[in-house]
Amino acid sequence: MLTTANFLQYTQWSGIATLVFAAITVLAFILKWGLRFRLVGTTGFMLVVTAGLFALSIVPLSRTVIPGAARYTLIYDNGSTQAVIATSPQITPTQLDATLRQAVSNLFSSGRSGTRQEDKLTVRARTIIHPEPGTSVPVYLGEAKRSLISRENSTIAIEIYTEKFAQLPKPTA
């Protein structure tokens, strides 16, 4: 996995390449080469790439990994206070707890904006069951809430709907 140190090194190399392109561009204008305007575009593009790599070297790209968490898929996110993840129908309540903790931690962002009434990120977990052929029913298994204000010292409230697990199909041996 790429780290911020890797991106810092890539930024340095990209910065050097940008300076080389800038020097060639200046030389092209002095010598009136036909491709001088293309070099202006190339130099500008290299500036954008260098700035992007520099931004990636500042922001950590790590994800929270919680032992026992199951795989999930983000299926809805309004970018503010609500998100929904999909899990496997074979998930256990213990795995769901760990999965919700992981999802609510990974989805936290200081860019999310709460409302005056709701300053918490709510992540709901659901799965799809098929009670009969041709019928699909979503079953919400639980939800997690955490503060949108602070990443540190934020308590995560987990609610598991244990009665919903009775609707899930039993695993076959």
User: What's the arrangement of strands in the largest beta sheet?
Assistant: 1-2-3-4-5
Fraction of residues in β-strands: 15-25%
DSSP summary, beta strand count: 5
User: Poorly predicted ranges (pLDDT <50, ≥5 residues)?
Assistant: none
Question: Explain this structure to me?
Answer:
The structure is a single chain. This protein is of the alpha+beta class. It has 2 domains: 4-58; 73-167, no CATH class. Helices cover 38% and strands 20% of the residues. It contains 3 helices and 5 strands. The chain has a 5-stranded mixed β-sheet, with helices on one face. Helix 1 runs antiparallel to helix 2. The two termini are 36 Å apart. The mean pLDDT is 88.
